[in-house]
Amino acid sequence: MSSAASTAHTSQSTSRKDPAWEHALPLTGKEARNEVGCKYCKKYYKGGITRFKRHLAGIKGDSVSCTQVPDDVKEKIQAMVDAFGEKKNAKLEAQIKFRQQVNVNGNSDEDCVEMEVVGEVEVQGDSTAAASTLVPKKPKSKGPLDSYCMHPEQARAKEKHLQTTMNQHFKVKEREKAHQYIADWFYQVAIPHNTVLLDSFDLMLEAIGQFGPGLKKPSPYMLGTPLLNKHINLVQEFLQVQKEQWSSTGCSIMIDAWTDRRGRSLMNLVAHCSRGVYFLDAIDASLEVHNAKYIYSLVSSCIDEIGPEKVVQVVTDNASNNMSASKLLRVKYPHIFWTSCAAHCIDLMLEDIGKISMVHNMIQDGKSITNLLYRHVRLLAIMRQFTNGDLVRASTTRFATSYLNLRSLYDKRNELKQLFASKDWAESSWSKQKAGQNAHDLVMNNKFWSQMLEVINYFEPLAYVLRRVDGDVPAMGYIYGDLLNAKKEIAARLNENKKKYGPIWKIIDERWGNKLKTALHKSGYFLNPSFFYNNRQEMEEEVMMEAVIECATRMYPEDAIVQDNIVSQLSAYTEATGSFGTAMALRQRNSPTISPANWWSAHGTSAKELRKMAIRILSLTCSSSACERNWSAFERVHSKKRTRLGQRKLNALVFVMFNKRLQWKYSQKDRDPLVPKFVDDEPPNEWIVDDPATPEEEEDNNSEGESSKTKESQVMEDEEEVFDSSESEREEEGNIPYADESSDHERVLVSPPAVRSWIQQHQLRLRPPDGADVEEAVYRDWSGLPLDLVALVMRVLDIPNLLRAGCVCTSWYAAYSVVRCVRIPITDAAPCLLYSRAANDADTATLHSPSGGVDFKVRVPAPMFRSRYVIGSGHGWVVAADEASNLHAFNPLTGAQLDLPPVTGLYHVETSSDDQGRLLYNLYDDELGPDTPSVYTPRELRMLLYYHVHLSCSPSAGAECVILLEHRPVSEHSYAALAMRDGLRSRRTRPHTEARTLTRPLQVPVEHAHDVIDPCIESYTYEMQLHKVDIDDRKLVEVRSSDLRGHALFLGFNSAIFLSTKDFPSLRPNCAYLMDDNSEMIILNMYGCRDVGIWNFENKDP
């Protein structure tokens, strides 16, 4: 067996979880990997664990029965096989019932498909005994021929199992082709891949299948109006059940404020009851001050809409403005409680625990291991081979993520030890690097794992509580008792060592405080029969009863009779008399399937008033997580691309999207509340990405074992020419570093070595050059790559490779779009310089990265790059005038190009010609008069007319991109949207352009009424101040050098960019890079020498 095979088998053996493996012989390495040995008959059999279980159970068919297996083992294995068959049948039954939700044939309710057991269809891998299968009965006949028809499922089930298997085999290729079409749509519009897990996706496929070929797609109008209205009605019908529940159990209002990527301040309003979550509204509050009065007005109006008698509590985070708003609300609605989000409080507990030195160091050590493994493509593949899966897990909060990943590392510690002790690791270059050696030492150190377990014991009991309160089920009856149990569990896990658990208890108590010890929380603990009757000796019963009486007083402020009855009925509950003392009530106190509210509903008939109040309290949530997990719904719908939609339709889309997602989450009873289910719910995971790997760190996976740095990845320094500047001018400016002209090396746009090696290994080739006589079939499509692998490839590409992805292979750009949707960080985000070189072709430009000193050659679409007159750039696009002075926006990396409205679209430009018919332009100027134009050639016009161009966003965004042109006379502004083709719109305004300079006096002209020649004032820059905008207080705050935190600030003409000097070591930290953007210098001498300066904020010195 080869080394690779041995490694794979070792990993496989360590991950066996089926109990039947206990009866198998360990493989010695001589047998094939798909063989299993029996420890009783000492023979080896082809196949996997399923066939081996048939061998032990004596099931005839595709395996030989074992004659030496003990009877008890045989019975045990037979029971396992039967249980698996039953589980599979139950799954099949659930699938059939689920498919019955779709009915596109128009059958009425009485014609709905029923279920019956037909035939005997073998379930592979379960039992030799044929398993009865549930299939739909045929529908009631609707015509004479219907009596001769059979439902497809019924017909298939009645056929022989061999024929069914053959049909499925022949359908494999058809299914793969259908999947390819589905995937093509996903990739084209960058839809997150895990959305296929939604039930609505399955129902859609079922409906299309039932309709058959030729289904006409819905039009945009149908999706935007009639179908949307139908969905609104369906959602409202579903939610009507919840509204009816509000009258009996009450509801909670949850409010959460957040800021989207466009800087808008938004607020979500959600109602929660025991039946689920109801989205009320999402409000754009960007223009409002989020003080107590404003929040109170929002909540108050929401309560009035629902009905004050139906609302029990309001749940928010612990912000001071929310707490102040609660005081205002209590004046108007004294019966409504305002509580803090329990999930937020517990997350703060986890955060405080994470600040303990030992815990913090452990988290950093764990990250160093995962970052190493996930930064390298080949090392990641080896890790997955050993662990049979992934190490890193994402969670809804940062410190819950830390717990999940520490637990994952600890559970896989044996597999990790085998990895770092393997031959693959020893022979790799990572084992010789410092980061690899540190990871190896940690993994092989048993003390490290014992300390990790101790840290896990700090987190895990609280994570259990977080799972409870972060779910969508009512948790008011559990939070208080769960926190008490968590403290006990932590102490028990730490062997009652007070020195260890004491600091953790202190953190819990400080955060617990009064936030989660309100009358509602205490009453929920007291009224939960599981806690009360089991912990009565430890319970502070008098304190808890005072809380119940306070709740009765507040919830029924004007009904003294109800208050008195509740107090008198408490004794029946505490003494377990009447309906509380029946055998069933005693038995169901601790039932995991009966909630405390349902227990009171069934067994609280002896205390009607107390029963009603208990149900309302125990049906409450204690977290606003349902509100927070759906931030993206408003942002996704209310995007600039949909500004043409009416506000009413936008709100309707948010209403349907939000509530549909809430319904789906509520239906997933077995989901982990700590793990996000949607891509856009998932926050950035710092356990995967920390410091991006450089190309030099990637290992070259070639057979000759050469150095990891290849000729293609060498940094080349060619002598370059900036536009038409002479060689002496370049030497004086010193803008571009260059080397000997005789160098014959040239930077090639290729992936780093490890990625290139992976491409070769998987036979994924680049598209052939244009005109090459190569069969297209040999160039495989990359559309089948899994998203995580695409993300890894994207992370190691530099900017030109990343943005040229659309030119590399047929589906690369779609994959890139998907990766950008999940916000995978790009390793190199520094700005680049674009210029021409005399030695290159006229249509070739050079792209220079100042941060890395790397040059790339790119081919620019027609017209030729050297014939263009560059006006400005932004967002990776360049705007330039061609030989006729018409403007074009082009992307030098992707080759995309857009034509802007012609120059004659400007109000003061007209075309003319000379005597020989050559093109001329008439430029009208107010100073010369309306009838006296200046005549220019196209070259003269573009030199004199255009000053600068600003882009509002990337032109790839489509019609929402606006291009602002600053032009003559004297900085007038005109603008054009990409959707405009009838000319430029002009605003005859003349704004002052701010000038920045550090290296020479700034000449500022000053008007004087008496002198013929205007005097000038010399202005010098002695000091700079950097300010940031405080959105909350609406003021400017000066930024100190300590605020930059090792970053460099680029102050450009269009934007400001922060770059980490950790990622770009050639930059100076805590400094600002500036360029002289004097408007007059731009106008009069666009290609003149420009001043570049660096301001040091620490020394306050240029």
TrEMBL record:
Q: Where is the composition biased (Acidic residues)?
A: 693-703, 715-734
| Example of a GO cellular component annotation carried by this entry | nucleus
Its domain of life? Eukaryota
One matching Pfam family is Beta-prop_KIB1-4
Q: Which UniProt keywords apply?
A: DNA-binding, Metal-binding, Nucleus, Zinc, Zinc-finger
According to the entry, every stretch annotated as the BED-type domain falls at: 15-73
Does this entry carry the keyword Metal-binding? yes
Name any one GO molecular function. Answer: zinc ion binding
Question: What residue spans carry the region label Disordered?
Answer: 1-22, 673-746
Q: Where is the composition biased (Low complexity)?
A: 1-14
Q: Where in the cell is it found?
A: Nucleus
Q: Which PANTHER family match?
A: OS05G0256350 PROTEIN (PTHR32166:SF74), OSJNBA0013A04.12 PROTEIN (PTHR32166)
Write the protein's name.
BED-type domain-containing protein
